[in-house]
Design brief:
Elements lengths: L1 H25 L2 H4 L2 H39 L5 H35 L3 E8 L3 H21 L3 E9 L5 E9 L3 H5 L4 E7 L10 E11 L13 E6 L15 E6 L4 E5 L5 H27 L16 E6 L4 E4 L4 E3 L2 H5 L4 H17 L2
Parallel strand pairs: 4-9
Antiparallel strand pairs: 1-3, 1-5, 2-3, 4-5, 6-7, 7-8, 9-10, 10-11
Helix pairs in contact: 1-3, 3-4
Length: 362
């Protein structure tokens, strides 16, 4: 335990040192004249500030305990003063322990809390029309949850079916801590219910996949223009008819990875290009981050599942009003409320489990 604590304190010393370096750098006139560098440093400083502030408070409490111990051990001091010092040490030790736990929790989840924008992609899987309706229901669940958290939702692209389901839908969600809440949704989702299309009342099993990509800012990932091929064409609607006569549909291809993005949601070529670039950045960023995670295989224990779209993470059983998250063996009999956007209990359980696993592997 002592070894773990020493390792944690060494890490906190390192972070505080980096925080001081950034403070000094921001005051450098040369950096002040470089907006991109200044913004990057300010972002890093903002990420570190909460942890460093708490660590400095921890160090102050440690110093106060040491002062009180000196009074308590001073045989020449009056007994009343020594008794007060003893009582103060008890209070400070309790505060110090609680603060260290708080610092640990903040430290292990800091990266997730720092991402305030994600791009989500929901695709209907096996189950035909019913799978598309389920994909729509998942989309509604996430957007209602986002509304409750006062996050901003922006739809990028969708492909609808005749019954109002979604073959696929792509949208972004922005807000404080959005990745720490929605990052666990990536994977395979399965639904068990009587479909609207079923006349015999039989329960069917259908599926949808969800991808959640942290949306990087341009500063977080640099994609060279020469690495991206752009194809422009006319947008087309159902049945192949032309949506408009202008060449507004945009397809981007990132040649180093082979990742492609097509966008024809807007009538404006400029808007389609901007949306396509946002999705491309997220997919390329996730591609390279995925490679880094693979190289750090020993750290996989700290994750909940692999995040792979094919991994079955959750089952939605409508007849029993039950949601089961298979990763943490969680069953909740409030599926109706969850589908209406009340996802708080699910995400809280996942975050808590994840935090405990990360603390074990800190």
């Amino acid at each position: 335990m002592s070894e773990k604590k020493d390792s944690l304190l060494a890490k906190l010393d390192e972070l505080e040192g980096r925080f001081c370096q950034i403070e000094k750098a921001i005051g450098d006139p040369a950096i002040a004249r470089d907006p991109a560098r200044l913004i990057a440093l300010s972002k890093e400083q903002s990420k570190l500030k909460t942890i460093v502030t708490k660590y400095r408070e921890y160090k102050k409490i440690t110093a106060d305990i040491k002062d009180a111990e000196e009074i308590m051990e001073d045989q020449t001091a009056e007994e009343d003063f020594r008794a007060l010092a003893r009582k103060e040490i008890e209070q400070l030790e309790s505060k110090k322990k609680a603060l260290l736990e708080e610092i640990q929790n903040t430290l292990v989840m800091a990266d997730e809390m720092g991402v305030d924008s994600v791009i989500m992609e929901i695709r209907a899987g096996t189950g035909g029309e019913e799978a598309a309706l389920f994909a729509r229901d998942l989309y509604n669940m996430y957007t209602k949850y986002a509304e409750g958290r006062r996050w901003k939702v922006e739809q990028f692209d969708f492909s609808a079916t005749e019954m109002g389901g979604f073959r696929e839908v792509i949208f972004s969600v922005k807000g404080d801590g959005v990745w720490s809440e929605l990052g666990y949704e990536a994977g395979g989702h399965r639904v068990q219910r009587v479909p609207e299309t079923e006349s015999q009342g039989r329960i069917h099993t259908s599926a949808a996949t969800v991808a959640v990509l942290p949306e990087p800012e341009e500063l977080d990932i640099q994609i060279a223009n020469e690495d991206v091929l752009e194809h422009v064409s006319r947008s087309s609607g159902p049945g192949g008819q032309s949506v408009n006569k202008l060449s507004s549909a945009v397809k981007l291809e990132h040649t180093p990875t082979g990742i492609t993005v097509s966008m024809q949601d807007e009538k404006s070529q400029h808007k389609n290009r901007a949306k396509a670039w946002r999705i491309l950045r997220s997919r390329v960023y996730e591609h390279y981050e995925g490679q880094k995670r693979a190289e750090r295989a020993s750290e996989r224990k700290a994750m909940i599942g692999s995040g792979d779209r094919s991994q079955k993470i959750r089952t939605y059983n409508y007849p029993k009003n039950r949601l089961t998250d298979h990763r943490i063996n969680l069953s909740l009999y409030s599926l109706d409320k969850i589908m209406a956007g009340d996802m708080g209990e699910v995400t809280a359980a996942l975050k808590d489990y994840d935090r405990q696993q990360r603390l074990k592997n800190l």
